[in-house]
């Protein structure tokens, strides 16, 4: 089955910008929710802002995307804007754990103090704009840093709003409810009416960008962001102007695996490589990619495509340094995708990674419509024609009904020409039904749960308690806190009765501290463990994945390094240890309760919250029964704090999930 998604454009103003790019720079409202198709140049608008002497804090979900944006921006500043390389490199900085390691190697001991100074100015010796590209955790750590540095006690969120012209949250469809507090904090303070009657603190405008947007406006409104200060910006597709994508042949093929897709399209792949263009293969599952690697190697070799022209992109291979695997393929997140002709990847490439000339894409469909559209949109950029081949089969369609619906739609339009809007409408149809048809121009791909309102309130409460929030800053935060923050505060006051009781104090205080720690944990990422392959390549692997997909943890005894960190020394490549039949491993959490020092261990599944509440209410447990009798209001407050936010004080357990016995 196939059809053609027709070439589409955006209008181009005399400035060279599209209407959306112009609005991003000039829209007066302080909070902007931005919907634009892939390739529309959302990031480029802020490059223009930098050239106009503005300062931008650009927040992205992954380290790879941060590096990709910074490398591309510096290259453009040098080649197109004729900046000196050393100037561009000082004016554009990346904030991530990778950069932290580089700074330590350079002898910078106080990383957070160094970044606070960078926040105020990257390069005091020259005029001109500046951009910091950061992952959200680095920014949050600065706002909540444990120790205040001399001379910097006053640094707070209000200073960030004052130090930048734009604060941008890119790929905001990836945001979790627990991580919305950072965006909510900036949006609320940027948009409220201040004591002197002006709109918002500082000068920064807050923008959320996505090609597959969530309906976050309702969450902002619930948090008290004035509707009059929210602009919903939408890029309009036109028939003339600047081309985003050329004609793209979209093909659904029922094939057993990705090597079969590659074999079917091998002549086309070879021709693309001969023309020095790129071909991208995208897998749904990392384990499947690893298992297919020998077959992919064999097929590429038959097409005379050298292994050193291939880059493998996924969470495991990206965790190591730049290197070549045993197959000869390159790996490592510091590799530049533009240097390679064939990219073999997982969902890692969905989040804003742009390829130089990828007109052919072979892909699995992803787990949700937004995954599909994000992948599809990486191909055939800048008006080039292209081909996207999507592997499907009965099992995939049974698991993902939207894929079956997409297949039916393509079959009904076989060999026809359709617009990108029509494709987007089909992919977003399930989400649109939730909005009762009142979506206007924007086609949403979902919304944030109500928990985002309360996690934002808890995040606000944690910030109110920070040392930097004193005197007038604290007064501002108190005055403008959302109602959910006030509700959380009332529950914490109610809970405090347990903390004042000699018998319960230790457990209650520990539980309270861990709840606040959960508020600062912006993403629900599992425990990772170090694996060293036979050639010395070091990788960080999700512990549950390692246990589920391999026999490494049963065949090899873990060791501890000088930093007391667990690692597994392999005698071959990781792929050598993959299992045909998966282990029944699942992620488990050590969970805490407010009334007892005893912990529990629960499976981190969709039923985790329900199970935690059940154990809290279990009157057969003598500790729980006594606490409910002694402090019913405090226990109910603890239950509500968890139920409203969805945050359960706990941590990943070190116990092997498949061998666990004494669990709740």
TrEMBL record:
Question: Which Gene Ontology molecular-function terms are recorded?
Answer: ATP binding; hydrolase activity; nucleic acid binding; RNA helicase activity
**Is Aminoacyl-tRNA synthetase tagged as a keyword?**
no
Cellular component per GO? Answer: cytosol
User: Gene3D superfamilies from the entry?
Assistant: P-loop containing nucleotide triphosphate hydrolases
Record carries keyword Metal-binding = no
- A Pfam cross-reference name: DEAD
SUPFAM superfamilies with a match to the protein in the record: P-loop containing nucleoside triphosphate hydrolases
Q: Which family does it belong to?
A: Belongs to the DEAD box helicase family.
Q: What is this protein called?
A: DEAD/DEAH box helicase
Organism of origin: Thiothrix fructosivorans
